[in-house]
Structures are given as structure tokens and as C-alpha cells.
Specification:
By secondary structure, the protein is mainly beta. It folds into four domains: 124 residues, no CATH class; 98 residues, no CATH class; 43 residues, no CATH class; 130 residues. Helix content is 5%, strand content 42%. The protein contains two helices and 36 strands. The longest helix is centred in the first third of the chain and has 19 residues.
Length: 485
């Protein structure tokens, strides 16, 4: 069974080869060369009688019309393989020079092979492969016979590229460059690509005219235009338009000098104009200012950004609200609140922030004796919204003998009225007159002071502390308190 399959495959291969073979008469000559010497390996196989034969194996030179095989009898050329061994592209030529003196025939297109690329030719088809064997390009049979100076349906002219002049149409020349990046170009006249819709008679047209204007046209009306040459320097533009029925309305223009024009009548340097009804200008940016105009009342407001980036407005915007659905970032690192807070009833609104210093004092609630004197009185505070946190340090010089409850005075903000007692913590760094197990301040509502309370034993009731019993000269007290304004 395997032998039968092998014979069938061999017959199939022979039949395919015969269909694609090149027939050489006695003394016909095959010529092959490249534009770089000794960089292209070549192998040519043929059928001599009924025997497949290697007709040529070698490396091509760079001399034009180099003979690589001369037929000694009528034979068939089955295949030719060319492989570029160079590190850059080379050009390969393969030609038949008939013995009867007829026209030379290029057997395959003149091909530029990339580094490591190869081309396989079987007399009818060309296949170009990369270094890994992947097929890059294929050509079908090349029927037109030609010689130097003749026409070539693949190349335009043998061994060169150039302009092709179509037999019909309004195009005078279409240029194809020698490198892929060279553009298809029109030397004069218009280039149009039209797509028609038979259902409504409308059509899309891609159009480049001799003036250099690029546009898309729909139903005979331009809706997208690039005109780089209109008017003086800087006035070329890209234009977007809207079509309704048989009317077209200019929607937007982007000018060469950076101007953007929206539905206006003229382009003003440095100006963005929005003109929805074609009459009333309602929005304009010009020379760093943003102008808004009420088309009915005629009032104008100007928002200005100066050279330092400061933002100002010629109208009173003190009550304006800035709304953002995203994150607001202060890249300068600061958010300023007014010196006098503007309270908000909204539970989720931060309406104030303040920080500073204050001077604490310890005095008796009933001032029957002279107040104490101090060697140190300092304090700091932070206010966030209505929440106030204070810190303080006091060192007594002469304590005195006041018997009323001690209070800390001069708090920077009045405590909230009502039942809102707030406490703090003390740290005593010099001895008291009596031992205590608790010693703390309590802010009194609707005042700017806190009473000082404590207890001498665990079982004792906390009571107001006084100078006579607890405070002595050189007593040092430090602490913090937090309360609501």
C-alpha cells in the first residue's frame, strides 16, 4: 500500500511539474545574476528525458546576463531557487536568451530579496519566503514577454520603476516609488474614490483635487475638509461640517496657527468662539481671559488667568460653589480658609481650619486672694471644623493660697453651650502639696475656661482642686484638651 501511495504522489508531482515547466530548445541559454557579487546561492533543476537533473548549483555574480546553463538538447526546467546569504537586501534577475535570436524573456519578476530570504520559481509561480521559511509573497504566472525597453505588466519597465499613464480616466500619472514608504501620487488632476449606495442615491467620495484640498463628500456636500493652502500663512485649516438634507453647515475648524473656530463667521487669533445660533456669542477665550455672554441680556462676565496662574473674575463670585465629582487635588499643598469661619449646617462639609497659640492661666474660681505668678505660660491649638484641640504648659512661680476651685482660662474658642462637658489630661512634672490619684481639666460649656478636678484616694469623690491644698511654688503642669466650639 505504501509503495502504491508513493507512486501516486510521484505521478502527481510529475504532472504538476510538467504543467509549470519551462521548455528549453537546444542551445537556449539561462542567465542569472544579482546586484551584489557572491551573495546569492542558486540551484536549478530540470527534466532531461525522463530523468530529474541538477542543471546548475552555484553562487551568482554581479555581472548582467551571466550565463548559468546552456541546453545541449531540448529539456524542461522544473524549478529554480535563489537564497540571499547577505546581511542586507539584494536584487535577483533570471532570464531566458532563446537560441533562435528571439526576444530575451525575464522568467520571473526582478525581485529584491531581504537578508536571509529566498525565492522559489517553478516556471509558473514565484514564492518568496523569509529566513524561517514563512511565505511572504506569491506571484502567479507572468505571461507578458518583453525585453529591455519593452513593457512589463508587473514592473512598468524592466529593471526600473516609474510612472504609469492609464489609458482612460482623468488621471495623468500615478507614481509608485522604489521603496515601500514612497507614496502613490497624482501629478495633476483630481483623485476620487467613490462608494455609492443604490438605496438612496447618496454616495461617499474621497476626493483630493489639484489645489491640494482633501475632503470627504456625502451626497455632493463636503463634510470633512483639510485645506492647507487657503489664504495667507497660518490660515490653512481642517474643517468638520454637518449635513442636513441638501444643506451643509460648518461645525468646527482647526487652524494651522492653533486657533479653534466653532460655528462662527471668522477666525480670530487666539480666540475660541461658541456661536450656537450664528448670531449670539456666548463663550469666548481670548488673551488669557474667558468671556461669557448672555445673548439675550447682553451681560458679560470675564474669568482671567494671569501670567502667574492666578484666577480672577470681574463679577462677585464669593457665593459661587465649586462642584467636582472626582478627586480635588491641591498640588500647591495648601487650602486657605477665611479668618472668620463661615459655618455650614451640612454634616459633611468642612467649613473651617485654624492653628495658632494661646496663653493659659491658672486662677481660682473665686478670686479672694491674689492670682498666682508664673515662670512659664504657653499653649498651642488646632481647630478643624468645630473641633478644637489645645495643648499647654504652665510653671508656677508663687502659688498663693486661694481656696476656690482652680480653672484654666483664656481658651482660644468658646465651648459649645449646653450639656457638652469635655475633659483632658494632665502631666505634673513637679510635686503637688498633697498626693492625688486623679488630676484632670474639664471644659465648661459656653465659656473659655476649664475647671481642674481630682481625687486623693480611690474611694474619694472627685472634687475641685485648689491652690491652698494642692498647688505649691514651682509646680509644673502640662496637658491637652479637646472640645467642641
Amino acid at each position: 500500500m505504501k509503495r502504491i501511495l508513493f507512486i501516486i504522489c510521484l505521478i502527481f508531482f510529475w504532472a504538476a511539474s510538467v504543467n509549470a515547466m519551462i521548455i528549453l530548445d537546444d542551445t537556449d541559454v539561462l542567465e542569472a545574476w544579482s546586484d551584489t557579487d557572491a551573495k546569492v546561492d542558486c540551484t536549478i533543476h530540470g527534466l532531461v528525458g525522463s530523468t530529474f537533473t541538477n542543471l546548475y548549483t552555484g553562487t551568482l555574480g554581479d555581472g548582467a546576463n551571466t550565463v548559468v546553463y546552456t541546453a545541449g538538447a531540448a529539456i524542461s526546467v522544473v524549478s529554480a531557487t535563489f537564497t540571499n546569504t547577505d546581511s542586507s537586501a539584494v536584487t535577483v534577475n533570471f532570464k531566458l536568451d532563446p537560441a533562435n535570436g528571439g526576444n530575451d524573456k525575464f522568467l520571473m519578476p526582478i525581485i529584491s530579496l531581504g537578508a536571509g530570504h529566498s525565492v522559489f520559481f517553478d516556471g509558473q509561480r514565484c514564492t518568496v519566503m523569509d529566513a524561517s521559511g514563512r511565505i511572504l509573497k506569491g506571484y502567479t504566472d507572468h505571461a507578458t514577454s518583453h525585453k529591455s525597453g519593452g513593457t512589463d505588466d508587473l514592473l512598468g519597465a524592466p529593471g526600473a520603476t516609474g510612472d504609469v499613464t492609464p489609458a482612460v480616466g482623468e488621471f495623468t500619472a500615478v507614481g509608485i516609488g522604489v521603496a515601500p514608504e514612497n507614496p502613490l501620487h497624482i501629478s495633476s488632476g483630481n483623485l476620487q474614490l467613490q462608494i455609492e449606495d443604490s438605496t438612496d442615491g447618496k454616495n461617499w467620495i474621497f476626493d483630493v483635487n489639484s489645489g491640494g484640498v482633501f475632503q470627504f463628500v456625502y451626497g455632493g456636500l463636503p463634510i470633512f475638509i483639510i485645506d492647507p493652502t487657503t489664504g495667507a500663512y497660518g490660515s490653512g485649516y481642517t474643517q468638520l461640517s454637518a449635513v442636513e438634507g441638501t444643506s451643509v453647515r460648518v461645525g468646527m475648524r482647526f487652524y494651522y496657527n492653533g486657533n479653534i473656530w466653532l460655528n462662527g463667521d471668522t477666525a480670530i487669533d487666539g480666540t475660541l468662539t461658541v456661536n450656537p445660533d450664528g448670531v449670539n456669542e456666548v463663550f469666548q477665550v481670548n488673551d488669557g481671559s474667558l468671556d461669557s455672554t448672555d445673548g439675550n441680556a447682553g451681560t458679560t462676565g470675564t474669568l482671567t488667568i494671569d501670567s502667574s496662574g492666578n484666577l480672577s473674575h470681574n463679577k462677585d463670585i464669593s457665593a459661587a460653589t465649586l462642584t467636582s465629582v472626582g478627586l480635588i487635588t491641591a498640588t500647591g499643598g495648601q487650602i486657605a480658609f477665611p479668618a472668620t469661619a463661615v459655618p455650614s449646617a451640612d454634616a459633611n462639609t468642612l467649613d473651617d481650619y485654624e492653628e495658632g497659640t494661646w496663653e493659659p492661666s491658672l486662677i481660682g474660681n473665686v478670686e479672694t486672694d491674689p492670682d498666682p505668678t508664673y515662670t512659664q505660660q504657653n499653649g498651642w491649638y488646632r481647630k478643624i471644623g468645630s473641633l478644637v484641640t489645645v495643648g499647654f504648659g504652665i510653671v508656677i512661680n508663687v502659688a498663693g493660697n486661694n481656696t476656690s476651685t482652680i480653672k484654666i482660662t483664656n481658651l482660644p474658642f468658646t465651648a459649645l453651650a449646653g450639656i457638652n462637658y469635655s475633659v483632658g489630661i494632665f502631666r505634673v512634672t513637679a510635686a503637688l502639696k498633697a498626693n492625688v490619684i486623679s488630676f484632670f481639666p474639664e471644659v465648661y460649656p459656653n465659656t473659655t475656661y476649664a475647671f481642674v478636678y481630682g481625687a486623693t484616694t480611690a474611694a474619694a469623690t472627685q472634687e475641685g482642686m485648689n491652690f491652698e491644698t494642692y498647688i505649691q511654688n514651682a509646680t509644673a503642669i502640662r496637658g491637652t484638651m479637646t472640645y467642641t466650639q
